[in-house]
Amino acid sequence: MPEQSPARSVSRARPAAGAWAAQALRRWFDTGADTDSRADRDSTPVADRSDTRIDWLRAAPFIALHLACLAVLWVGASRVALAVAAILYAVRMFAITAFYHRYFAHRTFRTSRALQFVFACLGASCVQRGPLWWAAHHRRHHSYADTERDPHSPRLQGFLWSHMGWFLTPQGFRTDWKRISDFARYPELRWLDRYDVVVPVALGAILYLLGTLLAWRAPRLGTSGGQLLTWGLCVSTVVLFHATVTINSLCHRFGTRRFQTHDDSRNNPWLALLTFGEGWHNNHHYFPGSARQGFRWWEVDLTYYGLQLLETLGLVQGLKPVPARVLRTRA
Hints:
The chain is mainly alpha-helical. It has one domain (58-328). It has 18 helices and two strands. The model is unreliable at 1-13 and 35-48 (pLDDT under 50).
């Protein structure tokens, strides 16, 4: 293939405003609608990249999800709506921590292809992109934690960037396929990664229909389609998102350090409770290969307890333990 001329390269890198907007809109529904085939630029510091600006048009659905939470002022609340929001928070937090993180990113246990896909769908319902995108970025974080190549270091880029700014950029939107080649061989996971909006939209439709049905058949419960949609999808998802990303933004700033790692990771028991065990972050950075992140008996790790239950039921196998040498290590 003939080498592309510099002028043509510039035109492709900087499309006309109309074409850029159309492409951004397409990516709301199809993340594969990305004609930028540039390879991942691990060797370039984050601060030097031209594609680290926030793409506000593409980020519009994320912003709209937050604004939609204000609908609680109109739809009100009920015990049913609050219970649905809490249940969805717990189930989806487990899907993120157990499968997106400990399974897809770190391969700390084994499971069947069917259950792998079920929990990938549950994770996708969290509106934190697809499992391959999530795991690839997390693997990059571990490779370069708190260096210039880390996509979300609060030490270098501040709280807001590490909390949510980094993934709203063209660079952040891309999936680094080289880092996730082990799971990218599954076509169903690649499809889910490409069309990551499908599962949240389906969840929203189910919640709206359920609320409408309850309003018709059990009006004494005081709920409605709009109420379950607002609390079950919007509020629960926004709270879940911000709880999850505190591990990027807060667990590298606040807490204790049992292990002298090369990054700023810390153990934070309050965030560990909020995120089902992810707050034992210094433990995790010292030895990320364990299915357990609360290394001591008193370090509550709800995700690990859930994985033990799944192992007892025969649904997952080979939970990787914390090695004895790690447990003997003194701070």
